[in-house]
Design brief:
heterodimer; A: 111 residues; mainly beta; four-stranded antiparallel β-sheet; 11 strands; B: 115 residues; 12 strands; globular
Chain lengths: 111, 115
């Protein structure tokens, strides 16, 4: 049963464009996350938000920025995409950090 | 610093076989370990966790894992696999830091179950 929703499922764009991915969770969790999964399935955390406060900010490029309107939503914006941004972006949420619930992911392809 | 490693990139078994997926960690303080499963084209799903107490923990769908401090391991096991268990399995460890806690994932093990 899906409780973390991500849109779009896929996105193809060209270098230099701006993209935005949406994530919504209906679990009532306080913390949400964005992960990047590369073509080798390696997972790296990018951001996490707790009650609209950024609590973890990995050393990701400045063109990436998380945006949250409330604790149920955490969007990801990429200002000017580059080829190395091609990956699957996974959104997750948790109540107590230890058990995280993931969305299906958004696959980004940068041409 | 805590890290986690999964030495097997790909494991292939037949339906009904038992399987063990290996995970080793480097100890740097309080330990929290978990396993996640990712079916093709989908997000990760939590399987089980260990923080303290009984070193053998039970998860969903017949999976269990055993924590060993002496071996620095947290291997995942299942007595009899089903074709639907084919997926990538990730071991994860929590890193506690001043900038916030982080869940660090291993490189994953692809489990292929043949009929």
């Amino acid at each position: 049963e899906t409780a973390v929703f991500q849109t779009p499922n896929y996105h193809v764009t060209q270098v230099g464009n701006e993209v935005s991915f949406n994530c919504k969770q209906t679990l009532g969790h306080d913390t949400m996350y964005w992960y990047k999964q590369d073509s080798k399935k390696l997972l790296k955390i990018m951001f996490s938000y707790n009650n609209k406060q950024l609590i973890v900010n990995e050393t990701v490029p400045r063109r990436f920025s998380p945006q949250s309107s409330d604790k149920a939503h955490l969007n990801l914006r990429i200002k000017s995409v580059e080829p190395e941004d091609s990956a699957v972006y996974l959104c997750a949420s948790s109540r107590d950090f230890y058990e995280q619930y993931f969305g299906p992911g958004t696959r980004l392809t940068v041409l | 610093t805590q890290t986690v490693s999964q030495s097997d990139a790909h494991v292939t078994v037949f339906e009904g076989d038992s399987v063990e997926l290996r995970c080793n960690y480097s100890y740097g303080g309080s330990i929290y370990l978990s396993w996640y499963i990712q079916h093709h084209g989908r997000g990760l799903q939590f399987l089980l966790k260990y923080y303290s107490g009984n070193p053998v923990v039970q998860g969903v769908n017949g999976f269990e894992a055993e924590f060993s401090k002496s071996d620095s391991s947290f291997h995942l096991r299942k007595a009899s696999v089903h074709w639907s268990d084919s997926a990538v399995y990730f071991c994860a460890v929590i890193i506690y830091g001043g900038s916030g806690n982080k869940l660090i994932f291993g490189t994953g093990t692809l489990l292929s179950v043949k009929p």
